[in-house]
């Protein structure tokens, strides 16, 4: 047992600003250094130093996307460590809740992310496929499983197992960090296929000059059946 390593982790988690940033990520989102600085009530340079230490220690994972760098908990083990400390502390501390993503409610509900569905609807689709073990995400990669066929069939989609073979260009299934939800929705050829199918069926409607997707009446009924009432309530409820 490396006692120095234990002391190092304890010291990192025990600093108030770092603890605030770690707790802000407990819901599975990924946030920028600027957003985490607000959560911890520290300056941007101070937040960057704290985050670099947390990444170096393996408590956070940093994911560069364009000009931003997003931070999320490195593993479920880190989340369980924080939960245990919170239980020992007796009560959850006050948090400076970070609001992320667009203000436009339509963009938060459903929008295009290149050629696949993002927003709360995109996240609900990904969560549903993950819960049914039709797909699996592993860091920055993803794949469909042997349970995917019947699940995708309910959506009216085929499963092309050959398309996900390595070395065939664009990944068949991969996670894509959602701008507003800060968790992953489904991208790759599978994500594009789901989006194209929803548009072709008239469940979603794309309007000019906006990435927002309108959910039609028929689409609401069908997507509610596919996703379940609880997930649908999260899609249509307040942001």
Key features of this structure:
239 residues, alpha+beta, Arc Repressor Mutant, subunit A, 2 domains, two-stranded antiparallel sheet, 48% helix, elongated
Task: Provide a short characterization of the protein structure.
The chain folds into two domains: 3-89, Arc Repressor Mutant, subunit A; 105-236, no CATH class. It is 48% helix and 18% strand.
Structure description:
The protein has 239 residues and is an alpha+beta fold. The chain folds into two domains: 87 residues, Arc Repressor Mutant, subunit A, CATH 1.10.10; 132 residues, no CATH class. Helix content is 48%, strand content 18%. The chain has a three-stranded antiparallel beta sheet with strand order 1-3-2. Strands 4-5 form a two-stranded antiparallel sheet. A two-stranded antiparallel ribbon has the order 6-7. Helix 2 packs across helix 3, helix 3 packs across helix 4 and helix 7 runs antiparallel to helix 11.
Mean pLDDT: 87
Give the strand content.
Answer: 15-25%
Number of strands: 11
Helix/sheet category: alpha+beta
Q: How many structural domains?
A: 2
CA(first)-CA(last) distance: 45 Å
C-alpha Rg, in Å? 20 Å
Counted by DSSP, the helix tally is: 11
Detail the poorly predicted runs: none
Q: How would you characterize the largest beta sheet?
A: 3 strands, antiparallel
Helix residue percentage: 40-55%
What is the string of helix and strand elements? HHEHHEEHHEEHEEHEEHEEHH
Instruction: Report the principal-axis shape.
Output: elongated
The strand order across the widest sheet is 1-3-2
């Amino acid at each position: 047992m490396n006692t120095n390593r234990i002391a190092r982790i304890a010291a990192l988690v025990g600093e108030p600003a770092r603890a605030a940033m770690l707790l802000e990520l407990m819901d599975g989102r990924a946030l920028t250094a600027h957003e985490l600085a607000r959560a911890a009530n520290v300056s941007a340079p101070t937040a960057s130093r704290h985050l670099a230490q947390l990444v170096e220690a393996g408590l956070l994972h940093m994911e560069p996307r364009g000009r931003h760098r997003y931070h999320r908990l490195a593993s479920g083990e880190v989340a369980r460590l924080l939960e245990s400390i919170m239980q020992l502390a007796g009560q959850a501390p006050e948090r400076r809740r970070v609001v992320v993503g667009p203000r436009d409610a339509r963009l938060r509900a459903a929008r295009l992310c290149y050629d696949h569905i993002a927003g709360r609807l995109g996240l609900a689709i990904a969560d549903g496929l993950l819960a049914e073990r039709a797909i699996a995400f592993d860091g920055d990669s993803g794949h469909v499983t042997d349970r995917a066929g019947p699940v995708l069939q309910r959506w009216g989609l085929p499963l092309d197992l050959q398309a996900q073979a390595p070395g065939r260009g664009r990944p068949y299934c991969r996670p894509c960090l959602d701008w507003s939800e800060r968790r992953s929705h489904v991208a790759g050829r599978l994500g594009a296929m789901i989006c194209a199918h929803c548009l072709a069926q008239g469940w979603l409607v794309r309007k000019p000059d906006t990435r927002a997707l309108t959910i039609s009446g028929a689409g609401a009924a069908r997507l509610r059946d596919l996703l379940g009432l609880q997930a649908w309530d999260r899609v249509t409820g307040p942001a």
